[in-house]
Amino acid sequence: MYTVRSINKLIKEFSNLPGIGEKSAQRLAFFISRTSREYGSRLIEAIREVMQKVRYCSICGSPAETDPCPICQDKTRDKSIICVVEEPWDVFIFEKTGKFKGLYHILGGAISPTKGMSPQDINIGGLLRRINTHKTKEVILATDPNTDGQATALYIANLLKHRGIRVTRLGMGLPVGGDLEFADEDTLCHALNGRRAM
């Protein structure tokens, strides 16, 4: 079978990316093989810059080029409200709405026995430390509305129920079994405004 070693190597690397299957990896590899050298150079430079400059905020876990991140440093944000999300890209989705003015906490996943993820595998300890050292009044549990996200939200709600903190969950508007990353801005705003106590 005729193959091109460098293209096969690129297909293999693309296949390791989340959400990219073999066919998508092939399309991307062949697209790159046909593009101009200028575009290829810009893509390589963008990847190199991310690898060199991006770190994760020691407070909330957000990707940023500074530590603490710009959101944690922003004095205009309401530091008494923490929105707990599963992954870094969830912060970008909330920020696109322009409606949430509190802080974030990224867990780095969800509790999932089937995937081998226990409470110790996600950043719940960091959340508890933040709550203990700051005047937190509300924790919004914005984990995905699927089984793992629900289990994670309930686990955290149980940990916080005797601390005198209002614990809420995003309201109607998000489909059960869905992921935040696929929610549009209007749906997310509606869910944020309709959050309820847990």
TrEMBL record:
Q: Where is the Toprim domain?
A: 80-175
> Which SMART domains does the entry mention?
TOPRIM (SM00493)
Gene Ontology molecular function, alphabetical: DNA binding; zinc ion binding
BP GO terms, sorted: DNA recombination; DNA repair
Q: Does the keyword Zinc-finger apply?
A: yes
Q: Which residues belong to zinc fingers classed as C4-type? A: 57-72
Question: What CDD domains does UniProt report for this protein, alphabetically?
Answer: TOPRIM_recR
Describe the family membership recorded for this protein in Swiss-Prot or TrEMBL.
Belongs to the RecR family.
Role this protein plays: May play a role in DNA repair. It seems to be involved in an RecBC-independent recombinational process of DNA repair. It may act with RecF and RecO.
- Which protein are we looking at? Recombination protein RecR
Species this chain originates from: Aerophobetes bacterium
Which gene carries the instructions for this protein? recR
